[in-house]
Amino acid sequence: MHLSNLAMSVGQSATLRLNELANNLKSEGKDIIHLGGGEPEADIPGGAYEKAVEKLKTRRVRYTPTSGIKTLKEKIRSYTRDNYGVEPALQNIVVSSGAKQSIYNFLTAVVNPGDQVVFPAPYWVSYTEMVKLVHGQPVVVKPAKGLLCDIGDLESHITSNTRAVMLNTPNNPSGLMYGEDFIKKLVGICEYRGIYLMMDDIYNKLVFDGVKCPSAFEYSQKSLDESVIVSINGVSKTFSMTGFRIGWSVASQAVTQAMTRIQAQITSCPSELSQEAAVGALEEGDSFTRKMVEDLQGKRDVMAEELGKFKKVRFEKPQGTFYGFPDFSEYEKDSVKLSGRILEKTGVVTVPGKEFGLEGHLRISYCGKKQDIVEGVKRIRKLLDE
Ligand SMILES: Cc1ncc(COP(=O)(O)O)c(C=O)c1O
């Protein structure tokens, strides 16, 4: 059967594959602890539930304007103003079917075949494949040491063929955050060179220890309509609404219009029901997120304590998200092998670091139940240390 070269070149999403595997093993009655997940366990905000039910009761769920309903875009405008230091017009916003679609729309809107898109490792698993889907060339910058790149390293990978830099902070999988100085310099470099800076802000509110994640917009010398910054966000993580598939972008009108034209030909618009639910979530706002951050911070500490008991694991404590990225290379350098052995021998699901562009690490999620985090990490320690 004929399949396109593009289809053949794109890898399967490792995290979605592992989710499926964990569910299949569980349904076969195996004792599985899933530390590979990417969604919080909290119920959705009450406001999201109410709005969705209200909409369903009308028995009219229809197409909406391509870039999203006005009430949601107004909420996104306020959310962006309150959290990111810039107040977009409604014409600067496109609502999409998940932040994933927003990123894809952005890449489709700005990348020509062969253009380079630069991003640091460890990176979110989809970045490389999405760049390939738009016939671009992913350029990965590996940190010289630790899990964060320095700005000089990143700049040295930018060439005349670079169209965009993508940065996810706090980061999936490391949970670490790039500091103010790095963001400020990165904004300066991208503005000076006229290349896009896509900030993947999806975990930007899930930050611990009372710290605030710096926003690129705060360091921009330009108005939003002249800006090279494109901020990606959504309700999946911050409001525990992964299944609603609502994300959005804030960017200049020129980029926003291009992204809207692309979306119009692909999904027409995001689901009206989900958009209404997102309005309810954003109305509820910080009170919901604060509780989740408190809960996740407690789980982060539990995971850090358990990982601290290993003889040879190196671990940088996450500053946000719900992932950690411990270094197991003193036990086994091949992360796929290690993750497979852990699953086979202990029933614990982890994600190999290789999927995120850094060998020797495993991504361990702490978005599940505390007792699973303790038991899961303990099982791995028993296997490797005893
Ligand atoms: C770094 C990062 N960006 C974007 C997304 C996509 O989020 P959404 O569920 O809104 O498509 C994810 C989801 O795991 C993520 O980890």
Uncertain spans: none
Tertiary shape: globular
Q: Tell me the number of structural domains.
A: 2
**How much of the polypeptide forms β-strand, as a percent range?**
5-15%
Taken in chain order, the helices and strands follow as HHEHHEHEHEHEHEEEHHHEHEEEH
How does CATH name the architecture of the largest domain? Answer: 3-Layer(aba) Sandwich
**Distinct helical segment count:** 13
Distance between the termini: 50 Å
The Rg value, from CA coordinates, equals: 21 Å
Largest sheet properties: 7 strands, mixed
Main sheet: strand order: 2-8-7-6-5-3-4
Structural class: alpha/beta
Q: Quick one: CATH superfamily of the largest domain?
A: Type I PLP-dependent aspartate aminotransferase-like (Major domain)
CATH overall fold name of the largest domain: Aspartate Aminotransferase, domain 2
Mean pLDDT: 95
Bound molecules: pyridoxal-5'-phosphate
Helix content: 40-55%
Number of distinct beta strands: 12
Query: What is the C-level CATH assignment of the largest domain?
Result: Alpha Beta
